[in-house]
Design brief:
about 230 residues, about 0% strand
Length: about 230
């Protein structure tokens, strides 16, 4: 995602246009051997890196958004009042396992940044949520209507992208002038919020023990959090 932030923000259809399959497989093999792989140095295309990243999340033993949290997110999404809905979704986020929370925050912050360049890359928050919700959530369609689930899950991810500053950086809920009441609120024009924003409080870690350092999410954690994991 750091590579995409530096190289791919102006790429039309990033995360929507498929990368070359053989190139994606080669990238994944090399990344498995070296988590510090320099994608630019290896001359991988932006779409290949994007496709490999989506494949990584789709192949995790469990989805990045845990199944038990998905149930709570759906219940929170049913709240009619927009502001109450957003606060309820935020409370569910605080229950995520720490590694899942940190990686999800990083992914959503990146997608928020991508959406700020939608005039060039044509990837709005809605388009990005359509591309990512199946990868991040992977719902069990045998337990619910597929069409209904698709819309609910996609809208939840769209809300997270739109309201990234509120969900992860304790900023106010913002809705621009002219937005349809009750719709996912968009962010104002300006630079997106990144995880390096100083002075922002984060939710307290869950009371359960943190996941093992061998978690498949470990390579995606920010360096400082990886170091913390090794000292636990």
């Amino acid at each position: 995602m750091t590579y995409h932030s530096a190289e791919g923000l102006s790429t039309e259809g990033i995360y929507r246009v498929s990368g070359n399959k053989s190139e994606m497989e080669s990238l994944q093999r090399q990344f498995d051997q070296d988590h510090g792989l320099d994608f630019a140095e290896k001359d991988f295309t932006v779409n290949a890196v994007a496709g490999a990243m989506k494949s990584f999340f789709s192949e995790l033993p469990e989805p990045l958004v845990p199944y038990n949290m998905q149930i709570e997110l759906v219940e929170a999404h049913k709240i009619n009042d927009r502001e109450q809905k957003l606060h309820a979704l935020k409370e569910v986020l605080k229950k995520f396992p720490r590694e899942n929370y940190e990686v999800f925050k990083y992914v959503i912050s990146h997608l928020n940044k991508v959406s700020h360049h939608s005039r060039v890359n044509l990837m709005t928050s809605e388009n990005l949520s359509i591309c990512f919700w199946p990868t991040l959530m992977r719902p069990d369609f045998s337990t619910m209507d597929a069409l209904t689930a698709t819309r609910i899950y996609q809208t939840i991810i769209e809300l997270f992208i739109h309201q990234c500053p509120f969900f992860f950086y304790n900023r106010p809920i913002v809705e621009p002038p002219g937005a349809t009441p009750g719709s996912p609120s968009a962010l104002p024009a300006g630079p997106p919020f990144l995880s390096s924003t100083p002075g922002i409080a984060h939710p307290s870690p869950p009371q359960t023990p943190p996941p093992s350092p061998q978690s498949p999410l470990q390579p995606l954690l920010p360096p400082q959090l990886q170091a913390e994991q090794h000292t636990l």
